[in-house]
Amino acid sequence: MSFKRVVVTGIGALTPIGNTAPEYWEGLKNGVSGSDYITKFDAEKFRTRFACEIKNFDVNNFIPRQEARKMDAFAQYAIVASDEAIKDSGLDLEKVDKNKIGVIWGSGIGGLRTFEDECFNFAKGDGTPKFNPFFIPKMIADSASGVISIRHGFRGVNYVTVSACSSANNAIIDAFNYIRLGRLKACVTGGSEAPVTIASVGGFTALRAMSERNDDPKTASRPYDKDRDGFVVGEGSGALILEEYEHAVARGAKIYAEMIGGGFSSDAYHITAPHPEGYGALLSMQDALDDAKIKPEEVDYINTHGTSTPLGDPQELKAIVELFGEHAYNLNISSTKSMTGHLLGGAGAVEAVASILAMQHQIVPPTINHVTEDPTVDNRLNLTLNQAQSRKIDVVLSNGFGFGGHNATVIFRKI
């Protein structure tokens, strides 16, 4: 069957290095670190005392207080980024067929802070069950897509994907498929996470997954560096408006890029560790290339999953070299998590925005904080270390991998 073409007509971002997409891009190209000591709770007794938090953000500037109090932060972040993307797209919400606009969102955890707060409050009481009436709707992950839909009256398909740190890429691919199959005219997609909480930081440090560089948090997220010691958790949201190409052209929309492929795979190996040979990563990228009907040599830039973990970083690069062959050394590769930290279920969304903006500006954002070469990393690769690089970028591939062995890859092309 023949598929509809799918394009990106709007973007939005709320990140630790910029509270709008343009601010985010400035942070990316200038190599700004979003990591600092935690302010959301007292982390003094934690092994990790820093994170990539959003800064100078007041939700009541975007959502009335009475509405905001009914939402967990991850859903608030979803509204802020999606509102920006919808406005940026120029969609006329008075004229568009809202029955044909969907919302497919990604979040790996959902309302963790809400769950924490309610449990702490109960534990402090006398055993009498006193819970906030909004506890459940605030906590459940699907509330993010629900509140976006309700806010704008979008009546198309509506759900949230939960596949750990590949959740947002999963959502973007699902939105892509609904549009190219002709089921939707447009879709709000992306992902959000609000994991700078006691349980999240405590849980990830118990796994020994997070950096413990408490003496120098700004440089703690250092993908591919010999002394990397784990990821830095981040919070925020990224949003895309995906739209049927003909629909976008008919209304005179500006078009950032065309989405041409998405791929999935499973490591089928371990609940937290990646496949030692990067086999799942390779399969996901291969599936995306096959879906896009392009050759590996056509890709110019890869925004890697690159979390700054000892195991994950070299295995993804091993998969890239295996799949792309000699062309791997002609690519630019970078991990924007070195700046934003790891937004977990929202990571793929902010990285898709970064990838699209890199293509628009023909600038590859850097992998910052690299000091010492790691012999387990193929340092012949152009990892765009410490400074942004200008280059011709026509095709971008972006990876997202998650606990449980979930892998999802998206590909965008300049139009």
UniProtKB/TrEMBL annotation:
Its EC number is 2.3.1.179. It catalyses: a fatty acyl-[ACP] + malonyl-[ACP] + H(+) = a 3-oxoacyl-[ACP] + holo-[ACP] + CO2; (9Z)-hexadecenoyl-[ACP] + malonyl-[ACP] + H(+) = 3-oxo-(11Z)-octadecenoyl-[ACP] + holo-[ACP] + CO2. Pathway: Lipid metabolism; fatty acid biosynthesis. SUPFAM superfamilies: Thiolase-like (SSF53901). The keyword Lipid metabolism applies. This is 3-oxoacyl-[acyl-carrier-protein] synthase 2. GO terms for molecular function: 3-oxoacyl-[acyl-carrier-protein] synthase activity. It comes from Flectobacillus rivi.
